[in-house]
């Protein structure tokens, strides 16, 4: 059976981009794949984060996975740092990764910004840890949003570098799975910017825990142009804000962009926004409610993570041991 690995960083607020670009697709993939879903807390350390907040957000992301429909009995849910094989393999892989490959990573350039000399080594090495996450389980498929495609391709290159260096077909080459009609959800305030956890404007994103009033308000305030919705997809693509909202509507309603547009072509935005708000509340409302219920019992969440970590370690440790043998490291 093909194996899936994916993860989300426990930083800031989970938003509609995380849900539509990642979690919603994971839920649908569970019947067809062996699934491992990780809360990547070591990745969160690449930005300065308060320890108490990191603990709380790790539990919140776990709650979101479960509330959205990941079944912790069927799939494995755990936090990255509980399985030390990730960091150990990351070191070995970092010794096989040319700096030139890391220098191409656009996310590093964006996150490091102008202060490049001040950026941490962890932020730079982050894609190598991500490669270790994925290939450390010999995962074959990685469902992510569009923005992570380059990192998954790097993981593929690193797996290939290991196989070539040690002249064997050890790691499968993982493939990105970029699914659905909203693979790159944009800010509600600016159609050229990605919806992100770090945007300082609250109106830029719908959070997974937003209540009906917040959703309605943010959708109403979402930036649009004065024209009614167009008739064709080509015309829609030329209008980034409108295109983004139609993509969100389509993904939330499980229809294609084309079908979504057919419902609203020629109508004005106030009509469309009302429908969008309604579907967003109907999908996010129950998830947010279940998240809050789960978060009220952190003991239960921690037990889910510990159980998941045991199952994850049972896969990752034998693979790490083999890697140690292959590379010539004497091991326990
Ligand atoms: P992150 O919040 O960076 O840890 O991302 C976790 C997952 O959500 C990854 O699979 C991302 O590709 C996905 N994701 C984050 N932001 C967006 C977005 N604006 N649109 C689509 N997917 C996203
Ligand atoms: N880098 C990913 C992000 O920010 C999170 C991540 C870490 C991940 N390890 C992973 C995603 C392994 C998929 C597979 O979105």
In brief:
The chain is mainly alpha-helical and 332 residues long. 55% of the residues lie in helices and 7% in strands.
Helix share, percent: 55-70%
Strand order of the largest sheet: 1-2-3
The average pLDDT score comes to: 96
Low-confidence stretches: none
Secondary-structure class: mainly alpha
Oligomerization status of the protein chains: single chain
- Work out the radius of gyration: 21 Å
Instruction: Count up the helices.
Output: 14
CA-CA gap between termini: 30 Å
Bound molecules: adenosine monophosphate, tryptophan
Proportion in β-strands? 5-15%
CATH architecture of the largest domain: 3-Layer(aba) Sandwich
Assign the CATH topology of the largest domain.
Rossmann fold
Number of strands: 5
**CATH homologous superfamily heading of the largest domain:** HUPs
Overall shape? globular
Count of folded domains: 2
Largest sheet: 3 strands, parallel
Instruction: Give the C-level CATH assignment of the largest domain.
Output: Alpha Beta
Question: What is the element string, with H for helices and E for strands?
Answer: EHEHHEHHHHEHEHHHHHH
Describe, in plain words, how this protein is organized in 3D:
The protein has 332 residues and is mostly helical. The chain has 2 domains: 3-183 and 297-327, 3-Layer(aba) Sandwich (Rossmann fold), CATH 3.40.50; 202-293, Tyrosyl-Transfer RNA Synthetase. The protein is 55% helix and 7% strand. The chain has helices at residues 16-29, 41-44, 51-68, 85-94, 99-103, 106-112, 121-135, 149-165, 212-221, 233-237, 240-253, 257-264, 269-295, 298-327; strands at 3-8, 34-39, 76-79, 141-143, 175-177. Helix 3 packs across helix 13 (269-295) and helix 11 (240-253) crosses helix 13 (269-295).
């Amino acid at each position: 059976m093909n194996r899936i690995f994916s993860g989300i960083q426990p930083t800031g607020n989970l938003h509609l981009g995380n849900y539509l670009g990642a979690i919603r697709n994971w839920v649908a993939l569970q019947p067809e794949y062996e699934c491992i879903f990780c809360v990547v807390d070591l990745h969160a350390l690449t930005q300065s984060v308060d320890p108490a907040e990191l603990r709380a957000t790790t539990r919140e992301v776990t709650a979101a996975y479960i509330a959205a429909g990941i079944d912790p009995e069927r799939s494995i849910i755990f936090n990255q740092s509980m399985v030390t094989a990730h960091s150990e393999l990351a070191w070995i892989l970092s010794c096989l990764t040319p700096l030139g490959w890391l220098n191409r990573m656009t996310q590093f350039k964006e996150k490091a910004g102008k202060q490049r000399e001040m950026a941490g080594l962890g932020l730079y090495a982050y894609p190598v840890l991500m490669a270790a996450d994925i290939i450390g389980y010999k995962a074959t498929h990685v469902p992510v949003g569009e923005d992570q495609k380059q990192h998954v391709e790097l993981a593929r290159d690193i797996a290939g570098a290991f196989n070539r260096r040690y002249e064997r077909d050890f790691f499968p080459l993982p493939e990105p799975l970029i699914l659905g009609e909203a693979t790159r959800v944009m800010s509600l305030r600016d159609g050229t910017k990605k919806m992100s956890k770090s945007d300082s404007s609250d109106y830029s994103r719908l959070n997974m825990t937003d209540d009906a009033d917040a959703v309605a308000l943010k959708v109403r305030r979402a930036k649009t142009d004065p024209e009614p919705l167009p008739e064709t997809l080509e015309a829609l693509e030329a209008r980034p804000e409108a295109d983004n909202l139609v993509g969100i509507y389509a993904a939330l309603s499980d229809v294609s962009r084309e079908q979504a547009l057919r419902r609203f072509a020629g109508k004005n935005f106030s009509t469309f926004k009302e429908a969008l708000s309604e579907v967003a509340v109907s999908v996010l409302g129950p998830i947010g409610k279940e998240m809050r219920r789960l978060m009220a019992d952190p003991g239960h969440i921690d037990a889910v993570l510990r159980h998941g970590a045991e199952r994850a370690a049972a896969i990752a440790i034998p693979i790490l041991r083999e890697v140690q043998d292959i590379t010539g490291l004497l091991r326990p």
